[in-house]
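Lab channel / #folding
Pinned by the channel admin:
"Please post every new chain as: sequence first, then the structure tokens as a reply. Keep commentary short and put observations after the output so the thread stays searchable."

First post following the new format, from NK:
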Amino acid sequence: MVSLLCTLQSHRDDVNYCAFSGALLATCSADKSICVYSTRDFSELSFSPLSGHGYGVHCCCFSACGQYLASCSTDATTVVWSMDTGEIEAVLEHPGRSPVRVCAFSPDSSYLVSGGSDGTIALWDFTSRTLRRTGAVTDTSIVACSFTPCAQLFITGSTYGDLRLWDLSMNHLHAEKNAHDLGVSCCQFAPQTMKGADGCVQFRLASCGQDSLLKIWIVSLLSAAGIKMQLAHTLTAQSAPVLSCAYSADGQMLVSGSVDKTVTVYQANDGVLLYTLNQHERYVTACAFSPTAPLIATGSMDKTVNIWRVEDGSGAQDGAASVSSSGGRKSSGHSRLMVSEWSEEDVLAWLREEGLEAVIDVFKSNNIDGEELLSLTEKSLSSELHIESLGLRSKIMKKIEEFKMAPVSNGTPDEYLCPITREIMKDPVIAADGYSYEREAIESWINTKSRTSPMTNLPLQTTLLTPNRTLKMAIFRWTSCQ
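Reply from TO:
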């Protein structure tokens, strides 16, 4: 079975990626930070969070020994951090200054690959921290990358939907076009090398994408015929785009996270579904297995990272128990409802979560439900509910205003709304600040606002806009069901 061990809540924005070393867990976020935890008790290290990127951090990965952590960002850099001190060891500027969407170490840590939003690929010699080779895939963004266990080849996945295999000289060896309709979101080789019936070397590869599918491939290195890539299994347990996938250290299990908010765990060899986990409240964007312990980390747009313990035993079960432990959180039922639908009990539960126990008796005696909560004003808090503390009134009103600003009142997910127009996006694009906007709105903003970010008010390092096909597909699916 799988049980929820704890929930980490250090990030202030979407969690984009999770990575384990033998002793550490790293998570990165759109809030520009990387948090690092000890896997002994999941306490945050003294030098965490790491702050060195100017924009959101898309991906992070550990070197084989765990001594170094690499992270990449919309700021067009891949930063190498020391895990002894938390200090920056190197800043690798991506060719062309394109936002960097993914980075990956080779299994022996000799090389580091980074992939950009403009389709560029950089292969770095990690020992010397120098650029060794560059490559490119036109008219797309590189969003996924993984090395083979032998460290001699690596594969990239793009928003165009193809998987491409490369060698260390950046020779393009094989292209699996349309591997995922509308785009690849993640890919990872299993840690073990296999041998085919004819004696050829084989690797097992998992990939996922906007087509809501998780696929398992067999990649064969044929001495005469080159590379052969065969689809072994297509897994359909998730009902929306699958954003992340990862193998366990022994290659026997496979985990994936989806826009449908679920985490699925499979038996990797035959694709049998073992568990479906439902603890996250928004898209599951990241997942990772620990290489040394029976643990899974999953990150989400709900700003949390869940740590799951995988126990002995198998069978399709629901591991979505509400668990509260060190650093954990119990997920309340009211959080899944629109505020206007909250009962009086839901409002009281919300007050407890927000640390407003001082007014619980007042709200209870006045039978305040969700609809009445939204109608409260500074005046009614003072004159009708007789809350004398200005601080308490201000805190309550701030929370109520946040509810009113959020689009939960009509059920529209916030990530579907353009931050500029607050309308559902039809042609979402990613700007240099890492945020998605309606193309027409951000183009108009850039032309009239001196190239500053609408969200951060900082200068945009580039006016390059990348189509967000994952978000566009998600919006299409959501609107089609309304």
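NK: Residues 234 and 444 are 42 Å apart (CA to CA).
TO: also worth noting, DSSP finds seven helices and 32 strands in the chain.
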